[in-house]
Predict the 3D structure of the following.
Amino acid sequence: MTTSSLPRPISAEALAAAVYAQPGSGARFDWGLSGAAELGRVCAVLVVVDVLSFTTAVEIAVGRGMRVHPFPWGEQAADYARRVGAVAAVGRRQMTPEHPWSLSPAALATAPVVADLVLPSPNGSAISAAASATGLPVVAACLRNARAVGRWLRRHGYGSKDAPVGVVASGERWPDGTLRPSVEDQLGAASVLDALSGVPGGLSVEAAMALAALASTPDVPAAVRGCVSGRELIEGGFAADVEVAVRMDASEVVPLLRQGVFAAA
């Protein structure tokens, strides 16, 4: 065998393009901002899942008629809200009776309705804002609306090999800023994938493994209450947010991101 006939090594860039986006399947699954960027290269639609609490808060707000502007976590949210004529949500502990809009789904369920709400968060909101720049449709999903999202995707022809769905679990952050995969977002993403399990393109291995975690969880609300993220909120005094988030299939609202704003699909 001559040297010229030996197989050429594949570059890291070519390998990434070839396999990291889970080719050949109609529904795919990944984590965080990098996973969203990878799936965004090849998928026809992205579904962002941040159960505690961004996408749950989006579902609540959109269900009440508000338009939600995703925005990365930071002090610039208030400036951006002023520019677009919106109200900026604040941190849970910064809420006041005069300013009850925050990332808390329970608070948003009773806060006065505003036309436009800027909703910053370090995970789901940042991922949604970045995904919006791809020009793809972006859907906000949580445990409350997972089946409704799945039905909407299938009704619009997503889930084939030619129009794949990318489901992104946002995850949380370790103190050093790195991604912490989270139970609640894996179960939320898997609930969407469960509604997509019969799509013609089938599930990627990654999506099937996420779905297997859901199948082995006999009590999803209990798992979310007992996981690190759930306990963090409950022990911090925000148990109501967890209770709102674990009401599975309670909503038919499908928040769709168009031109940088979530509204009802």
Observations:
- The chain has a mean pLDDT of 94.
